[in-house]
Amino acid sequence: MVYLFFATGTEEIEALGTADILRRAGIELKIVSITNQRTVVGAHGIRVEADTTINEVNFATAEMLILPGGMPGATNMADSATLVERVRDHAYIGRPIAAICAAPLVLGRLGLLSGKRATCYPGFEGELQGATCTGALVEADGQFITGKGPAAVFEFGYAIVERLRDKACADQLRAGMLWNEVR
Question: What pLDDT shows up at residue 139?
Fold first, then answer.
């Protein structure tokens, strides 16, 4: 099971775009509210009905954790003691974690990106302690995948699909979603 977290102020396109791409790939994914309420309001006032709440998640079944960005969503995630503890535990056992936009700050503040190539929304590089910030749309280094921001959501989603499935599946999605025509 893949868990994608949603906080008050999360960038909706990063969360829902990523969820859409993964579900198209047949990846079992649940959107998780980091609050006790399933309904969460994103950065642009869009109400999102999460599949579950963080207190209902069985993290032992987590194949990957995904942190969409947006403000103040990313800082709300970083301020969630429960989420931070689960991210740290997940990283410690070597399972993959993906974060986009401002959300890599959660990983950076934990020191998880030290010695890794990473990317984030411009201006948040200082939060990625010890990382080599590349400015690329997407970086995959070790167990971590990071994305730059809203415009990177497609490549971010395809990178996750490639990690969890394979390159052929990601390429098939790119073609089927007409992404190759945009690029």
Answer: 98
Task: Give the DSSP H or E segment for 18.
Answer: helix 12-24
pTM across the whole model: 0.97
Total residues belonging to the chain = 183
- Give CA–CA dist 81/18, Å, rounded: 24
| Per-residue pLDDT at 28 | 98
Angle at 102 between CA 98 and CA 104, to 5 degrees: 40
The whole-angstrom separation of Cα 19 and Cα 42 is 15
Q: Which helix (H) or strand (E) is 176 found in, with range?
A: helix 167-176
- Specify the pLDDT at position 182: 82
Rounded CA separation 48/55 (Å): 18
Segment (H or E) for 154:
helix 153-164
Contact status, residue 137 vs residue 118, Cβ threshold 8 Å: no
What pLDDT is attached to residue 181?
A: 87
Low-confidence ranges of the chain (pLDDT < 50): none
Spatial separation of the C-alpha atoms in residues 70 and 90, rounded to whole Å: 22
* pLDDT (0 to 100) of residue 74: 98
Q: CA-CA distance, 164 to 183, in Å (whole number)?
A: 23
What residues contact 175, with CB distance under 8 A and at least 6 apart? Answer: none
